[in-house]
Amino acid sequence: GNVENPTYSQVSSGTTGHIESVEISYDPAKVSYEDLLHVFWRNIDPTDGGGQFVDRGDQYVTKIFYHDKAQQKAAEDSKKALQKSKRFTKTIVTEIVPAVRFYPAEEYHQDYYKKNPIRYKYYRYRSGRDQFLDKTWGEERYSHRKPVKSSKYQKPEVSKLKEKLSKLQYHVTQENGTEAPFKNEYWNNKQAGIYVDIVSGEPLFSSVHKYDSGTGWPSFYQPLEKTNVVEKSDNTLFMRRTEVRSKGGDSHLGHVFEDGPQPTGLRYCINSASLRFIPVADLEKEGYGQYASLFSGPEVEKK
Q1: Distance CA 196, CA 71 (A)
Q2: Which of 55, 100, 165, 226 could form a disulfide with 169 if both were Cys (CB 3.0 to 4.6 A apart)?
């Protein structure tokens, strides 16, 4: 916008160049950015470039503001997947743009629906928003983005594990071993895709959240599916660490440290020997097609 610290009345007049928006603070360890996008699409008409329902004007258009490249990619991929789903017959016009300074509205407009329940309910019904969303989404309107549950993935018997795994893979996953840094399969892998437990196949991490920590081991700032990762105290080697294991396979994966990048500040330092990498092009045939929307295309390399 072109007005510094505008009032809500100024913004709603459509003369400031600003748009009405919300700033969301969230804990990525509990709610993922993809979860936020899932809810966002189910609360708007992304095909309307002139406002939203009865609220008309550029100050009411929909936009997604991202804070880093990971958020940008997730938003763009989510938008592409929604367009491809044919949920909407018209083109999705919601823009994805860099975040700029956010100006909060005055206190009287915070929690407006709570302070003015009757007026808000009347406005909400008359706007046609709920009628549109119910027609568009049906029962899926209130659905949550469902992670793949670990109960589907089981740990094989020891005899089968010894047949399936290499000596190094068995040592790392079953005997809490550690592979050599810089001399393992995935420390420098830049392909787009997901990483699953070598033992059970449960989804654990994604290239979207992978980064170069300089340690020589694959590093991620958050899991792909938090429910598939279990943390335990580790007091071996005369130090206190937090071990990371898979929930279904009970495989030793590595450790998590609090020296990672934003938005989580965490570093999941994982052994390549405990992982199997599945590139984007193979997600569907391998049974992980639900994660394809995280990526913009097959075999995309991280830059």
Answers
A1: 22
A2: 165
For the chain (303 residues), the mean pLDDT of every run of 10, in chain order, is 95 96 84 90 97 97 92 91 93 96 95 94 95 94 67 82 95 96 97 96 96 97 93 84 93 96 95 97 89 65 41
The answer to whether the beta carbons of residues 19 and 63 sit under 8 Å apart is: yes
- DSSP string of 189-211, one letter each residue: --B-EEEEETTT--EEEEGGGEE
pLDDT score, position 29: 65
Which residue in 220, 207, 210, 202 sits closest to 295, CA to CA? 207
Query: Which residue do the tokens 């909400």 mark?
Result: 124
Distances, alpha carbon 231 to alpha carbons 72, 226, 245, 256, in Å: 29, 10, 6, 8
**Confidence (pLDDT) at 221:** 96
Decide if 24 contacts 33 (C-beta within 8 A): no
Output the pLDDT for position 177. 95
Q: Identify the pLDDT of residue 298.
A: 39
Vertex 280 angle, CA 275 and 284, to 5°: 95
| 3-state SS string for 123-178 | HHHHHCHHHHHHHHHHHHHHCCCCCCCHHHCCCCCHHHHHHHCCHHHHHHHHHCCC
**Are 274 and 172 a contacting pair, CB within 8 Å?**
yes
pLDDT the model gives residue 93: 98
- Give SS3 for 114: helix
E strand residue ranges, the chain? 51-52, 55-56, 63-66, 95-98, 193-197, 203-206, 210-211, 219-220, 229-234, 241-246, 252-257, 267-270, 275-279
pLDDT of residue 296: 59
Contact in structure between 41 and 34 (CB atoms under 8 Å): no
